[in-house]
Amino acid sequence: MVHGCYASAVPSVLGYPRHYAHLMPPATHTFTTALWEMPTTAAAWVFVTVPTAASEVIKSTPRPPRPGFGSLRVRATIGDTTWATSIFPDSKTGCYVLPVKKSVRVTEGIGLGDTVGVTVEVLE
Fold it and tell me: Which residues are bridge partners to 38 per DSSP?
């Protein structure tokens, strides 16, 4: 929710006053972490964990509510591969997790337990 004198006078984009939209550039976080697996009943999902400091910055950035279990749209890069996906809050660690799809792992020649450099650009 937007507060202050502009709240009712200026149309909004994604809940922010239109004249503030240009001040909300995507936030980029780069880190190194290991790939890990979360087994499910149908298939295993492979993730990396966004470090605590970056997760705290992401959580503390004001943004309008969005459906999807607290997920946020991101552009992720590992090696030479960049893809659009989402990060999700992990209630056990308090950090966000990033799913790394099989095509990225195959292209980059990485697997479970490998340490990788990751860049996450939060798009909202």
Answer: 45
